[in-house]
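lol ok so funny story. i was supposed to be doing the assay writeup but got distracted and ended up predicting the structure for this chain instead. priorities right. anyway since i did it might as well share w the group, maybe its usefull for someone
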Amino acid sequence: MEKSFINGRGAQENVHNVFFKESYVQEHVEGIDDWEQDKPKTNFSIVHPKSIVNKVESPDVGMEYSLNPYQGCEHGCIYCYARNSHQYWGLSAGLDFETKILVKANAPKLFREFLQKKSWDGKVISLSGNTDCYQPLERKFKLTRSILKIAQEFGQPISIISKNSLVLRDADILSEMAKKNQCAVFISINSLTESTRQLLEPRTVTAKQRLKVLENLSAQGIPVGIMCAPVIPGLTDHEIPNILKNAADAGAKWAGYTNVRLNGEIGKIFENWLFQAYPDRANKIWHSIQSCHHGKVNDSEFGNRMKGTGKLAEIIKDTFKMHSKRNKLNESILELDSSNFRNRIDNQLNLFNF
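and the output, tada:
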């Protein structure tokens, strides 16, 4: 019995957690074990981590510190590198990642405590370094909004990357922070083709809506850019010129890109999805990805892993560079201002320094 494609989800199954010794499978033998597969629903659990701001050790991801109020992401992007981290919580990188979301309820409290550390000097902190801080559950819990209010209070610069229009809800805070050059928002768009988006990123807003987000934020004086990421050779690479032009027309001043890499269990998840979603060209796409990573679908070497190597990777790089220049993107370097950061504990102690 062949399983049907699960519309509205990225992963089509739960893969084995590499930290578990045992695994469970559904088998179908001679028509005896028929089963019906229900569409998985989204559930959430409240967790209370001990820390919330993470030092980013990787030298090629473009951020020094990250903060993620949610673990797992309902957007269900099939390629998401954060899927592997779900295994540390005893869950699968597959369907569990997009259906079992962990809500870090104490994130605002931990964030305030972090900013009050005497050793902290206000370096830029990136929201959504792992999972989207504006995924659907943010409407209910408003953790990101609370975090932005605290950042504004302390003068802490924040960089955001998202693919959800919910960021517009917080434009009131972001516009005030922008007046002091303390925030920037990057919107992720890797395809303008709606049918591709529905399969690749099933629970995200449309590319058309994301362009409107760029336009809206830019009109309010909030610095905006675009992440054309990840580029998927054989599937979305031909869209780079059109994406960059539309983003620039909508007000984006900066652009970045990454080449898809399927590290850890994501390779299995993506391959399973690919041959169901695009059976007619799955082999071409799969081999195109391999051609950018020395015959594999993942390259862990710093400097190469995010952009890939080989002729196809070079074509993608040159195309991105040419059309960024043509659309006047990246003409200046984005530098947020940390000079206004004030540690509240230090200010209070200074009252007693006569």
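The chain has twelve helices and ten strands. The beta strands are 43-47, 53-55, 65-67, 70-71, 100-104, 125-127, 158-162, 183-188, 224-231, 254-259.
back to the writeup now i swear
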